[in-house]
Write a structure and sequence with these properties.
The structure is a single chain. The protein has 157 residues and is an alpha+beta fold. The longest helix has 15 residues. The two termini are 28 Å apart.
Amino acid sequence: MLVIRKARKEDKEELAVLHKASIGRLCAKAYGTDLIRGWLDVITTEAYDNALKHLVFIVVAGPESLLGFGMLDCPDSMIKAVYVAPDQAGKGIGTRILTTLERLAGIAGVNRLSIFATLNAEGFYRRHGYLLVRKATHTLPNGTCLPCLKMDKPSLD
């Protein structure tokens, strides 16, 4: 049985492991080794502290472990993250996270959303109604510059 719930401080260690595994395995084909290494370097348990305090931060919990997580910034109308455990890719976990974040955004009065999507996730977001706005670059705290895609969902209806 899967449970979607608010992320907790106690989840941080497991979140970091899941996050790194997801980046390392699911993003590797779209990004070179150096970019992946730089990206992984910024994933620490402390990296989740701000999100836990200021964002809508949800996890999908399975019977034994976390299977994915997502973050939403309602004031900025921005999906900040959707990550799934590599062995859960293609099983609907990402869709459950995204649709839950969209529903919570709608409840909060947000009627359109944006995301800076990883290159490997473009098809996922297109299938969920997001449109490509432009190519972009996301600069990580350590200076690593990740190519990404600015995508918008013009209506949550």
